[in-house]
Amino acid sequence: MTEASRLQSALAESEARLRRVQRIGQVGGFEIDLSSGANLRSAEYMAVQGLDAVASTESHAHWLSRLHPEDRARAERRFLQAVSDDSGACDYAQEYRIVTPDGAVRWISARAEIERDADGRALRMVGAHHDITALRESQAELERLNQALEQRVRDEVAKREAAQARAAHAERMRALGQLASGIAHDMNNLLQTVQSGAAIIARAPDQPEQVAAVAEALSQAAERGTAVTSRLLSFARQAELRAEPVPPATLLEQTAEILRHSLGRRYACQVVPCPGLPSLLADRRQLETALLNLAINARDAMPDGGVIFLSAAAETVADGAPHPAGLAAGDYLRLGVRDDGMGMDAETLARVTEPFFTTKPAEQGTGLGLSMAKGFAEQSGGGLALDSAPGEGTLVSLWLPAAR
Prior knowledge:
Elements: H1 2-25, E1 27-33, E2 38-41, H2 43-48, E3 56-58, H3 60-66, H4 72-83, E4 91-99, E5 105-116, E6 122-131, H5 133-203, H6 208-235, E7 243-246, H7 248-262, E8 267-271, E9 280-283, H8 284-300, E10 306-317, E11 330-339, H9 346-351, H10 369-379, E12 383-388, E13 394-401
Parallel strand pairs: 8-10
Antiparallel strand pairs: 1-2, 1-6, 2-3, 4-5, 5-6, 7-9, 10-11, 11-13, 12-13
């Protein structure tokens, strides 16, 4: 009797510890006799449900009545599936909400084992349920914070994109203003020449020699206006181009011959040998003008004299390969105009192809040479890029498609 008493006391102490752990962890035990439908609930189970913390027996209907209306059908369907004879399942787990008598909503995580007979019929379910309301609330708060963070990121990205769009618009407006200013300056000079010539002709209509001289000046002014218009059209890619096969070696030799007679004694022009190259496809007249403009820029970059190098090479751009001029895949001829002059810093290099941007003194350049050459190359299906550094000279590369 003493040993039985000791064992009974130890069992009671063990059960007390288990109930304490269940109470602290908000875990309640349950056992369901599936043949009779009796539901045995522990005191901790009833406490989690918001009821008196007393072990009791209740029906399945009582459990259903406490389920949240939005979860009731789903939880009942999951329970019936688990205990059906066809499922053969031995494990049961699901999460659902309950509504306590005082109206509070709690999240419950239920897990159990299902005992079956030899034929697979479910006899009994033994398990536990756990109050996970705090965990669910933490998850919901974390989700809310994530959504708020994502929204902040979207807002910041939208603000940055809007700022970039405003900056790009301001840059376009600045370039447009610079373009309009340059056009107005050149056209104003031409109009002043025309106006002065017209006034002279009006005052001296009976002096043929003077009238002829003024007419010649007016003709030259008109030619300068035509040249400016042509450059603008090339820059805007609106000039009508007449593409034809052009042998690069012949083109460079002829260009060098023109330059040797026009650059002056302090300058030399050399053609890098380029035998066996295929022809390129471009408007020859526009291409010659572009090369002459690039050579003049090279000359102006060497005020103390120097050598201008003209070169040509075949180049194939692979599909998807990056290219400094953004060329599409294909075969090209790369024409190069290189000098050993003062070079350009990164800031100047970034703006040098803008229309009317020039580092030359006033009245010595329109700032349209490079922009015209770039527009011509791109309109012809090619591109233009510059490689330069202070004190290291400049290489202007002009890519044009190879003629098939």
